[in-house]
UniProtKB/TrEMBL annotation:
InterPro entries, per database record: Ankyrin_rpt-contain_sf, PGG_dom
PANTHER family the record matches: ANKYRIN REPEAT FAMILY PROTEIN-RELATED (PTHR24177:SF292), CASKIN (PTHR24177)
Residue stretches in coiled coil: none
Superkingdom, natural source: Eukaryota
The protein's name in its UniProt record: PGG domain-containing protein
TM ranges: 188-207, 227-247, 267-293, 299-317
Gene Ontology cellular component annotations, sorted alphabetically: membrane
Domain PGG per the UniProt entry, residue ranges: 179-291
Keyword Transmembrane carried by entry: yes
Keyword terms, alphabetized: Membrane, Transmembrane, Transmembrane helix
């Protein structure tokens, strides 16, 4: 029902707008408010469908600016609306005209991307200060692609380049992101160290012991022993790898560029290795249980296996949300600004009749 109502609303907007376009320019300006506040309100709220209908039939709206000399793309940057900003890829060389707009303080489009998000509620949707900073860096790098090269190092009236403004505006969130990364790495390092210690000791205290004459394991030919040996080795290697990865996070220099790719990627690798090491450790425990009791406690095998995997399930349950958020922010979010086939000019523009 919501989709039907939404479709009906868009059809109504298009019909009304087509009727408005039959009027002269001055009357059109009065209809949507001088100086064009309707389209800027839509850009501020991220109403892509509304703007698409208006601009498709009246492309001149792209050039309109508010009292701060902000176009709809400038406002989309200030409010971090990706869908509206991506329309800039659909307007061709016109974007070279729009990107040179500056406000009264000499801020260009990249300066606006360097500012802290004006709507904190939108930034709070992203969990963790490190991921919030990563999202801000993604925006800054994307806007840098569309502005002219001279704008990258251009100073505003306060003598600040976009890069310097970004560091100044995001100083607090960088500190919070560093603390968040360090705390997360410290917690995971503790778990990885305990696992590495346990599985390393288990490798030299084999279930069933060794043959005195040859020193070979007693249950060497058993399938359960082979499963134990392989899973124990996997757990040791992955826990050591996880430990080293978290150690590299702990000793990082925490420059703003590190939050864009390096630190989140290391955290994903470390968590993945830690998940594998915990699972492999539990498999080794079940295999050792099977070897020691040699099938004499078959009725307890299934309950033991279930209980053994409870720590794995509990750990994954506690950290899977963080893991998925990291993957989404690091890999998936890179496609947020990928130019798509926008419906902006997909239909033939109807000529405006004066």
């Amino acid at each position: 029902m919501k989709k039907v109502v939404h479709k009906q609303a868009l059809d109504l907007i298009q019909y009304v707008w087509e009727q408005v376009l039959l009027l002269d320019d001055e009357t059109i300006s009065c209809q949507i408010g001088k100086p064009w506040p309707l389209i800027f309100t839509a850009a501020e709220r991220g109403n892509l469908d509304f703007l698409t209908i208006l601009i498709r039939l009246y492309p001149d709206l792209i050039f309109k600016v508010d009292q701060n000399t902000y176009s709809i793309f400038h406002i989309a940057i200030l409010n971090r609306h990706e869908d509206i900003f991506k329309m800039i890829y659909q307007i061709g060389s016109i974007k070279n005209v729009i990107t040179i707009y500056k406000d009264r303080e000499g801020n260009n489009m990249l300066h606006l991307a360097a500012r802290v998000l004006e709507s904190p509620s939108r930034l709070n949707v992203i969990p963790g200060a490190a991921l919030q900073l990563q999202h801000e860096l993604l925006w800054f790098e994307e806007v840098k692609k569309v502005v002219q090269p001279r704008h990258i190092e251009e100073k505003n009236t306060h003598g600040k380049t976009p890069g310097a403004l970004f560091i100044e505006q995001h100083k607090e969130i960088m500190k919070e992101g560093e603390h968040w990364m360090r705390d997360t790495a410290d917690s995971c390092m503790l778990v990885a160290t305990l696992i590495a210690t346990v599985v390393f000791a288990a490798a030299f205290t084999l279930p069933g012991g060794n043959v005195q004459a040859t020193g070979t394991p007693v249950f060497l030919e058993k399938i359960a022993f082979k499963i134990f040996a392989i899973s124990d080795a996997i757990s040791l290697v992955t826990s050591a790898s996880s430990l080293l990865t978290f150690l590299s996070i702990r000793t990082s220099r925490y420059a703003e560029r590190d939050f864009l790719w390096s630190l989140p990627n290391r955290l994903i690798i470390g968590l993945t290795a830690l998940f594998i090491s915990i699972g492999a450790m539990m498999v080794a425990f079940i295999a050792a249980f099977s070897i020691v009791f040699n099938g004499r406690l078959c009725q307890y095998s299934l309950p033991t296996a279930v209980v053994a995997f409870l720590p794995v399930i509990f750990f994954i349950w506690q950290h899977y949300r963080l893991f998925l958020d990291m993957i989404d922010s690091t890999y998936t979010s890179r496609s947020l600004f990928k130019p798509s086939k926008s419906p902006l000019f997909s239909k033939r523009v109807k000529p405006k009749v004066a």
